[in-house]
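Action item from last week, closing it out:
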Amino acid sequence: MFTLEEVKLLSLPLGPGVYQFYNHSNQIIYIGKAVNLRRRVLSYWQNYRQLTPAKQQLVDSIAHIKWHETESEIEALLLEANLIKKYQPKYNIVWRDDKRYIYIAISADAFPRVYLTRKLAPSGQFFGPFTSVQAARETLKAIRKIWPYRSCRAMPKRVCLYYQLGQCPGPCQGLISKAAYQKIIHQLSLFLQGKKQLVVKKIRTELDKYTQELNKLKSEDRTAIEQKIISLNWQLQQINKVLATSCVLSLEERYADDVVELGKILGLTKPPRRIEGYDVSNLYGAQAVGSLVVFVDGEASPSDYKRFKLGGNSVNLGDVPLLREMFRRRLAHDDWLKPDLIIIDGARAQVNAVYNLLKQAGWDVPVIGLAKDQGLRSARALDKIYFPGESQPLQLSLNSPALFLLKRVRNEAHRFAISFHRHIRRKVFWE
């Protein structure tokens, strides 16, 4: 257990950030944020007698402390939320519920509405997830100063307060054209996607264009162009300010969130940090191959990919026999890391075949299948999740983060199998 004197010797910064408490097994047991890291961490020992029994037990378990400095309290808030969601620490009880996470949404209307939601609709764009409503609100508040947008559920009969504050362009009264408003939404969307540099590049290109026009005009005709240049320069300044004081979830953080979401939907005891995806490919049963792809924390790990030549000289072997062959060879490799979840590109028959093999081998690893509705391959066909021994598949919302992750794994396994199959076919053709 740390003593107050030992904590004082740590070089904890005085600024904002996130701290992590570890136990003697080097497991993260608690994650918190702070405006002043040093003051907050010291408070656990300085106020030990005033802590609840649960928090005293937490402090008694601390063997190691780490921290991450951030440039702002907003960034600390976002980082804390994502680390808690990713690692699920024992003592972060308040975060370990089944509440749906918050998203920033852009509706599919002619004049899109920008708002916060916990429900993913079939249409529109969704950014996040955020585990903190406050973090999402602060992000939108900062962005709205750069790109005014509509947030009302229904168009009002007169302009609202946001219009008076310069934070809504007034589409309800026809004060902005559809094209001009869509341009605002496009830039806002790029920013939320993390394509901040592309947004800056577009503004600078527009700025250069107006600057060149300005040099060609007479003094009496320059006012309107000068105002546009002032406005664009102001946008650049505000973007830099937002970049310094807030943080939209990175792609890596979103992938980690998808893993946690998938674990909850599948009812797993822990997030499936290591996922293996499988697919087979053949041409009328000939030159059959199989692929194994690996995703760690929601991201592809190509160095762990494996490929298999299947079927020998046999022809007309279906997917199920080929899968059985591939998994027998996979199960023989104790030197490969065991996954937390196995995803098959297939439906009920494929999943049951693989599950039975795993059970015979003593593997307690969840296995599911992902296949198009009724075996269809068209873009309109919906993907469904198949479970061993279950007659009815599960269908997730098209905007489900868990479904995005499943499709990434399935599509990567399919791509890897197809590329290997083409390689084999070319090799046989030239022999």
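Closing note: The domain at 254-430 is CATH 3.30.420.340 (Nucleotidyltransferase; domain 5).
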